[in-house]
Amino acid sequence: ETVFATPQIPRAPFEGAPICTTAAGDAAAAAGPLKKITFAWNAGAPCLVGVTVAKEKGFFAKHGLDVELTNYSGSTDQLLETLATGKADAAAGMALRWLKPMEQGFDVKIVASTHGGCLRLLAPTASNIKNLKDLKGKIIAVSDMNSPGKNFFAIRLKKVGLDPEKDVEFKQFPGPLLRVSVEKGEAHALADNDPLTFLFQKDGAFREISSNLDGEYASRVCCIIGVRGSLIRDDKPTAAAIARALIEASEYAAHHPEEAAATYAPYGPGKVELADLVTLAKYHSHHHHPVGADLKKELALYAEELKLVSIFKPSTDPAKFAERIYADVLS
Amino acid sequence: MSLISIEAASAGAAPTRGLPSRETLTRAALAIAAGAAWIAFAFVTRHWPDAGEWGRGEELAQAAAGFGAALFLAGLLGGLWPRGAERLRRYTPWLLALGLFFILWQATTAKLALLPQPFFPPPHALVEVFVDDWPKLWESVVASLKLELLGFLAGAGAGFVVGVSLGWSRAFGYWVHPAMRLIGPMPSIAWLPIAFFAFPSSYSASIFLIGLTTGFPVAVLTWSGVASVNSAYYDVARTLGASRAFLIFKVAIPAALPHVFVGLFMGLGASFAVLVTAEMMGVKAGLGFYLQWAQGWAAYANMYAALLVMSLMCSGLITLLFRLRDRLLSWQKAEVQW
Amino acid sequence: MSLISIEAASAGAAPTRGLPSRETLTRAALAIAAGAAWIAFAFVTRHWPDAGEWGRGEELAQAAAGFGAALFLAGLLGGLWPRGAERLRRYTPWLLALGLFFILWQATTAKLALLPQPFFPPPHALVEVFVDDWPKLWESVVASLKLELLGFLAGAGAGFVVGVSLGWSRAFGYWVHPAMRLIGPMPSIAWLPIAFFAFPSSYSASIFLIGLTTGFPVAVLTWSGVASVNSAYYDVARTLGASRAFLIFKVAIPAALPHVFVGLFMGLGASFAVLVTAEMMGVKAGLGFYLQWAQGWAAYANMYAALLVMSLMCSGLITLLFRLRDRLLSWQKAEVQW
Amino acid sequence: MVSLAHDIAREPGVEISVHEVSHRFDLEGAPLPVLDRVSFTARRGEFVALLGPSGCGKSTLLRLVAGLEPPTEGVVAADGARIDGPDPSRVVVFQDPTLFPWRNVRDNVALGLEAQGLLKQRGARIDETLRLVGLENFAKALPHQLSGGMAQRVALARALVNDPDLLILDEPLGKLDSLTRLSMQGEIVNLWRRAGFTALLVTHDIEEALLMATRVIVFSERPASIKADIAIDKPYPRHRDDPDLVERRREILGLLGLDASW
Amino acid sequence: MVSLAHDIAREPGVEISVHEVSHRFDLEGAPLPVLDRVSFTARRGEFVALLGPSGCGKSTLLRLVAGLEPPTEGVVAADGARIDGPDPSRVVVFQDPTLFPWRNVRDNVALGLEAQGLLKQRGARIDETLRLVGLENFAKALPHQLSGGMAQRVALARALVNDPDLLILDEPLGKLDSLTRLSMQGEIVNLWRRAGFTALLVTHDIEEALLMATRVIVFSERPASIKADIAIDKPYPRHRDDPDLVERRREILGLLGLDASW
Ligand SMILES: Nc1ncnc2c1ncn2[C@@H]1O[C@H](COP(=O)(O)OP(=O)(O)OP(=O)(O)O)[C@@H](O)[C@H]1O
Ligand SMILES: Nc1ncnc2c1ncn2[C@@H]1O[C@H](COP(=O)(O)OP(=O)(O)OP(=O)(O)O)[C@@H](O)[C@H]1O
Ligand SMILES: [Mg+2]
Ligand SMILES: [Mg+2]
């Protein structure tokens, strides 16, 4: 047991908060011993409250799973490597981060999704950038050249008629320094994901120009659940149990954002304000967690759009791609 | 050392004896000044209101005031315990400088907010991290130390053997040297995917990464050490009937040890730098991990705290290494300094 | 070297003279075998269908076949140009091994798909990267080289001066040594925010990062070099009326140069490792940048290609450094090997 | 010859034959000839002293005999077998002491026995030999704590402690004062007479050569060639005022270019 | 006294006084007394030879006089001023040549002039001095390409090329053959007579001391104390068979424990 994986220091406002008096709690005892599962995630992403809810509120247990959370920092494609090499059984990550590497052919299948939202494009409030079109000829700071933020807003720019390769320039800066790079004049706007973008705009000096909850994207998934290919082949029920637990947990989070945020709090580093977590939990669309054909369709749409901005190879067929990477474990 | 001792010898040639004067007065003045600086720091921390919200200012102020008072007293009463005062004397300039630096730091961050936030947290924000987050930090230290030591020992051992073999066998060199030239300079991150596959667990992969980074400088320097042994030593040993093994173990290796230690020193430093990479792989605690995790939230106070611990740890290990060297190589003057 | 040359001397003590026999036959056989391996590799690449889709198999097969044929011919006709054959002889074992390795690599990846994809791309996937993506790669090489050289030179210069000063002045050591102990082992990533603020542009911050990484080993080893100079040299120079400057520039520094070069070598290696970090800051091209980008896309062929270029570049720079050293230190046997 | 020599291997001493040996070094790209067709044979049990001007090639010749380097031309043989490498039966006292700085005096002296795995068997000889060179009180001292003459005596002890067939001495007593030198000379001669090994001694002291050797070879300037080969068949202990030796001395001084009155 | 000495600073030579000097080293934690209340004065322009057993403390005494180390007790003074550091007016030829391996022979010899900024002014003396020691053909050679005796001659040249007031020689000719040695002895004496510096010479060769010095000091075993202080007021050039010198020699041999018949 480690301090990181288990909340040992309950935060003051929740002292004595019943950990298991939940929707799932009573139904917990599924027959037989719990199956041990290693679940990889990036604990720095507060949009993954679904995962902590599933663990702390007993959704995993309810589905017969004993889940160990393993934190992977750094760029999230290492999660794919972990899954593909069998070092973890399942993992959560952002669709726009994973799809491109998955085009290369990892032995990883998508089984579910958890929520939408969490990518934002910000510009200084004082600047005259008011919408995406104003970005023409500007420099946008991103945390790396494959970041979901970069991928997503490249699509958005393309859709408003700007060429993401010619009309704007993306420049890479270390995530926490994105805002500084704009303030120092090395870029005009920045695109990244929560929590950093959320924190950047908190003091009002930066304004949100666009996000992935705008317009048609309001009903698009952000984070998806992948499992190792061999789990689908050898132990499909477990894969299904993981998917179910997380979907139920997301639904729970959508209805109880305060409690969901509280489950996540111990995983955040140092000084994270609970109010912020709650705001984020409310902001991210945890009610949106499609599966089956819906999810497959959304994945295909992403693939289509990534092709549009020449991130995907022209030869990739979006429908076939979605078919290949999605495994329907729930029906 | 030599140059410095030459300097010292000529400087100390004509010591002023007699009155308890200059020397002693400077000593006392320095201690008192250092004490005053720390008390001033405590005062600033306590009574100048913060421009933002950071915890543990109170505790810091108390500790600083206590320390300052102790220094102050030591300056006043130094005469009572000359040997202690003599010892303290070596530190007082630094203590004074540190006190002033802390005041500056405090003023430019928490008080005047001249330095941009949250990148430059004030001192009491760090204190807060140490006080409030110490279980996590402690766990990280233990985990990192374990990983580091396992990797370092494995890498140092392998590097030593490779280095000796390179200096020893032409055939080994023929096959290994080109590979080493290609592999040696590769950044550790390149090994992540391969390490993932080649090793049963991500922990062993992490150990491999650290070992590799340690092993390269150890191998290169052991090799050079063996290769640059004064050939007169070999001549002597060979005419006395030394076997190949004797030449290696009783001539080449002892003569190369100073180089080997340089390699170990370099390897230790380098391996700390990859700790961050190695701890990206599914570990549950560790300083590198903590560092990255803190950075993801722009929790800079936590990050600096972890960094401080990390560099103290590395410095401590290097000190240990140098102690070991001084013991083994007592026959020679220190080669590499620390 | 010494140990090896001892070995060589005794091995070559009784050379077999007379017939063009054993020696020559082995030489020819090795070249022919190596040629055959490469031709086989070409055959496998060309005629055994791929299990997946990778480009440039055709071109690779042609190049390999051509190279194999040349080797084959060299083996058969080696007698015509003995000096050339002699030279080739040094490489044939490696060429044979490489040929066999390529066959194995090709078979286990593209053909039998034994190694998991996409982690282990087949050789022609790498060829594809070089052929199709060379403009980007080339741009990256130029950018990285520029950044690396600027940083390295700045860091090496600063490190050298600090190292000499540490070996020279007790006061400098008092103030700088503790700081160096704390700062030296810090991972470069820790410097990102500070460098970002302290420097006017992100490019200069990147240079600073590389310089810092280079400078630390250079400083430590220069310092040790200066400190470990045989004190008899100082005695001689001092009795001949050497000033302090003379002792430093004409005794300490020349005597310390072998150490300084070890430091430069270490610094060069270390600075390549931080290229990835340094190129996170606002650069538009660079090998580290390319590497990260390829890794994010799981474009492993691109990643390995960039890595290969990077380690060739580093190895090349180290070779240059060692040439320079051999020139400057012709009076001594090579200390560190490369 | 060879097989015979091997049959009686336990008989001490060895016959060293230097046959038409020439040697060259490389100096600034130009060849520097150092030995010029040197030929002589040191018979089993002989004590041969080599005299010659500074820099003529004496140390180089000793290195060839020790097997540390092959001659550019010619053959060096031990009991008829070509020497192609060093062997513990041929022990050298080098011109510089080259003690191992990481070993104390005793361990430096123990080097040969340790290398040949005889430490247990003959370890007692170490202290004996240290006493012989007058350094029993410095057994634990490190080389850098010795005076020049003491270091040289340690190097001598390191060689003497072995049981060589050939002892090669390159100015082994150059840094010693007359008294110590005299006693060392006596000890070496006693040891040689007792053990019966063959000895090659380079020295600059003509008297030393005459007092110790059975034969003195005088070399010319660089490139060294043999100028004279003088047998000294006098019984031991010899006396420096012996008229025969005085005569020989005058002869050698002449050969070295010093007028007889010196 | 001091001020006077400074007034006539351009007059060559210096008066060295060693007053009640004792010195100790640390060996294995225990103190090793090396010099025991040694007192003597070398007058301006005197040539003092020091004789004594190996390891008695001669080199140590020379280091104290050179100002490389302070004595544990007592005072060493030059013209009445306490010596507290090395000075180019006191040049040393060390027992080991310690040439700088990264400089060729010529540049090693140039060291002193370079250090004192006199290279341009007196650079011509370098080649002159190299010729004096017979190494004009090796000016470009690196130290590791020299024989033992040649290296020693380079070290000697490195000292002689300067214009010292005091020349300290620690067995400077130990590795030379008789002929070279004889000519070097002559050269040193000539130089000394011409330039008028004060000289301190450690040697193991009693004849050398008698031929060169105006005064011979004989030391006891370690810890060294002065056993005898013998003036040799003979004109130069001296001859080894001079009955006075033969008498002195006998006397010194006796002091060193060698019977007179040696
Ligand atoms: N490694 C080397 N490279 C070039 N020249 C060398 C080398 N070693 C020796 N020599 C040269 O060879 C010559 C003979 O050297 P050697 O050491 O044999 O002389 P030596 O007779 O022992 O002299 P000494 O009595 O002064 O020791 C010298 O002129 C020396 O310069
Ligand atoms: N650095 C040192 N540490 C300990 N002991 C030392 C050191 N240097 C010299 N000694 C000791 O001091 C004594 C005198 O040494 P010194 O070199 O003065 O002798 P010396 O008279 O010059 O002898 P030699 O004629 O053999 O050169 C020796 O016993 C030696 O062991
Ligand atoms: Mg010699
Ligand atoms: Mg001495």
Automatic annotation (TrEMBL), chains B, C:
Ranges annotated as spanning the membrane: 28-48, 60-81, 93-114, 149-168, 180-199, 205-226, 247-277, 297-322
UniProt key word Cell membrane: yes
Domain ABC transmembrane type-1: 141-322
Entries under CDD domains matching the protein: TM_PBP2
Keyword annotations from UniProtKB, A to Z: Cell membrane, Membrane, Transmembrane, Transmembrane helix, Transport
Chief location bin: membrane
A Pfam match: BPD_transp_1
Family, as annotated: Belongs to the binding-protein-dependent transport system permease family.
GO biological process: transmembrane transport
Membrane topology label: Multi-pass membrane protein
PROSITE patterns linked: ABC_TM1
Classification via InterPro entries: MetI-like, MetI-like_sf
Name recorded for this polypeptide: NitT/TauT family transport system permease protein
Compartments it resides in: Cell membrane
Keyword Ribonucleoprotein among UniProt keywords: no
Gene3D superfamilies membership: MetI-like
Recorded GO CC terms: plasma membrane
TrEMBL record, chains D, E:
Entry-linked SMART domains: AAA
PROSITE patterns: ABC_TRANSPORTER_1, ABC_TRANSPORTER_2
Keyword annotations of the record: ATP-binding, Cell membrane, Membrane, Nucleotide-binding, Translocase, Transport
Recorded GO MF terms: ATP binding; ATP hydrolysis activity
Recorded coiled-coil stretches: none
Domain ABC transporter, residue spans: 16-246
Taxonomic superkingdom: Bacteria
Family of this protein: Belongs to the ABC transporter superfamily.
Identification of the protein by name: NitT/TauT family transport system ATP-binding protein
Lineage, highest ranks first: Bacteria, Pseudomonadati, Pseudomonadota, Alphaproteobacteria, Hyphomicrobiales
